Amino acid sequence: MDVLLQSLDIFTRLDVWFALLVGSIGGVIIGAIPGVGPAVAIAILLPATYSMEPIVGITLLIGIYGASMYGGAIPAILINTPGTPVNALTTYDGYSMTKQGRARRALTLAYWSSFFGGIFSVICLMLMTSVIAQVAPLFGSRDILMAAILGLVLVIISHRGQSLIAGVLVFLGMFISTIGMESIRYTKRFTFDQSWLNSGMDLITVLLGLFAMSQAFVLLLGNDSKVPMPDLKGQSKREGFYDLMKYKTVAVISASMGVIMGIIPGVGEFLAQFFSYNIANNISKKPERFGHGAPEGIIASEAANNAVPAAAMIPLLALGIPGEALTAMMLSVFYVHSIIPGPNLFINHADFVYGLYMSLFVVNILIMMFLLVATRPLLRIIQIPQRFLGVAIMGLSFVGVFSLRNSLVDCMLCAGFGVFGYILRRLKMPIVPIILGIVLGNIMEQKFRAGMARVKDFSDFIDRPISFSIFVIIIIVLVVHGRNIWRGYQTKQATATGQ
Amino acid sequence: MKSTEYLTGEKAFAVLMVMLSAFLLYSIPHETQWFNGMSLTKQPRFWPSMCIIGLSLFAFGHGFSVWLKGSSLDKYEKVDVSAEIDEIKHWFRPIEFVVYFLTYVIAVPWLGYLLATLAYFLFMTLRMGYRKKSMLWISAATAVLIVLLFKTLLQVKISSGAWYDLLPDSWATFMIINF
């Protein structure tokens, strides 16, 4: 209880409130502009947060993370263009409702569903804290290594139809993390006699290149397209709330799915919303409406999406394992301030953890208040010319990368990764596996070396109950994935023979 | 997320990844060290080798799958070599913007963050084809806002302009701290 009260102290601070406001409002705006997204914004802001106190910096980033998905629903519903990639499913039913003249209803339903998902997952996080605090210290190096391997396996197989390229990119990221001087024998690895590679490649440089610069190139080389905005005048703001109340089972199932998928490293929003959308479709009395303006469709995708950010903090805080790119970025803020996420965090910095939970709670309330009054002005922001947005993102990327060391080489590397990211985007290949490869690769090497001190052969890595359980999960996941691939192949063959 | 149809450029990218992994495999003995008498798993060479072996396996697997995808197309859809070359040319199009970006980076320590950012935004706005006065004003205002936010307010570490030294002391200090 003392810790809880202590954590409430953070709300007496002006800088925390400032971070909460900037994070939540800024996040909504960033999410509402198609082509920016939270990854770009967080990558740009990351170096600036290094000089802030950890709770302020993390609060700001969490605000952007959570709020962007609320904002991303606006263009998804109004102009059939998701503001962030995870709002893609919202377009199915949201845009259909707009075409039917029910845009305001779809928007408020998306806001309330997001709010429900967000608050639901924060409450789950709070309720689970005592369990997490007891379980997390049981994880040793070998268990964390196994959890990181599970994360990588899930990242690879969750890219359905692209598992092989996801594997290439994960291992490329892991390789990048090994470049430079290693910390045991202080020997150089893959520096090619270049002194600027001795300290390795900075995560921020790679992040900014792959996310921000590549996106800037896409926008700069694209066209400005003007889309007509639907009129929201004269439509009721309350219907969305009533819809949520009507389909509360769908909301609870979807938010639960978001929490479960958020906890599992490497899975995240995409699978959460696909699963919840399918479940909502299956339990619906009118499944034929899905994709044609079904309120349950919006509830399923938005409640699931917004339940993920808080849940994704669980593996990050408890084990130091980020589940996706955004929490991977946040991990670097923890390290800069010598707050090491992992089993001991709940013992050494319990007030910080509770403070973070409270911030997540407040962020959701602030976002909801902002959205209920500011939807109309936000419609103007959606219409910012895309190429000008590209100019701004490239200019902002400079701040992010140059402020690290004032180094031209960093900027060149960033631009190089930007071109690589641009190629990946053109080929519709995923970027996130590289980032997770870098972050998890680093963790895996450390834990592998630490674990080796206690093992005689490789079988000792799974002689602990936790590591063995995770190992079994990895095997099950791989077998199921293999079976799915085989079934897909057989279906394809059968179709080809039938033709 | 699901992608099963062939996209122009996929073959070239697969070849690039295979070449990269082959080069890294070849470089392992030259770019990492081996200590005699030390167990395999403790060698500094061990972990990068694992990553590169993983990379190579997936790169070859991906290359094979792309080849299968390309060869399963019917004769009217066969991979068009000239389209592949056009796609590769497209990959180099961002280089123009990389040049502008690096010019901006080099200009900052000379002109200072404020002037360099203003110049960058105005030039890029014109380069993107915006000619309206209002757009140029918006562009300049965005540049100033970014400098005020990051340098003046958040005090992000960005080197000051060389010409600031020519200013009187009090002005130079003001410019160094804020712009």
SSE layout:
The complex is a heterodimer of chains A (499) and B (179).
Chain A: H1 2-8, H2 14-32, H3 37-49, H4 54-78, H5 88-99, H6 103-135, H7 141-158, H8 163-178, E1 180-181, E2 188-189, H9 203-220, H10 239-246, H11 248-263, H12 268-283, H13 295-319, H14 325-336, H15 345-348, H16 350-382, H17 386-405, H18 408-426, H19 432-452, H20 465-498
Helix pairs in contact in A: 1-16, 2-4, 2-16, 3-4, 3-9, 3-14, 3-17, 4-5, 4-6, 4-13, 4-14, 4-16, 5-6, 5-13, 6-10, 6-11, 6-13, 6-16, 7-8, 7-19, 7-20, 8-19, 9-17, 9-18, 11-12, 11-13, 12-13, 17-18
Chain B: H1 10-31, H2 46-71, H3 81-91, H4 95-111, H5 113-127, H6 133-153, H7 169-178
Descriptors:
heterodimer; A: 499 residues; mainly alpha; two-stranded antiparallel ribbon; 20 helices; 2 strands; 74% helix; B: 179 residues; 68% helix
Question: What can you tell me about this protein's structure?
Answer:
The complex is a heterodimer of chains A (499) and B (179). Chain A is mostly helical and 499 residues long. Chain A has 20 helices and two strands. In chain A, strands 1-2 form a two-stranded antiparallel sheet. In chain A, a hairpin with a 6-residue loop joins strand 1 and strand 2 (188-189). In chain A, helix 1 packs parallel to helix 16 and helix 4 runs parallel beside helix 16. Chain A is globular. The model of chain A has no long low-confidence stretch (mean pLDDT 85). Chain B starts with 9 loop residues before the first helix and ends with a helix. Chain B has 179 residues and is mainly α. Helices cover 68% and strands 0% of the residues of chain B. In chain B, helix 1 (10-31) packs antiparallel against helix 2 (46-71), helix 4 runs antiparallel to helix 5 and helix 5 (113-127) packs antiparallel against helix 6. Chain B is built from seven helices and no strands. The longest helix of chain B has 26 residues, at 46-71. The mean pLDDT of chain B is 89. Classes of the chains: A mainly alpha (499), B mainly alpha (179). At the A-B interface, helix 8, strand 2, helix 9, helix 17 and helix 18 of A face helix 1, helix 2, helix 3, helix 4 and helix 5 of B.
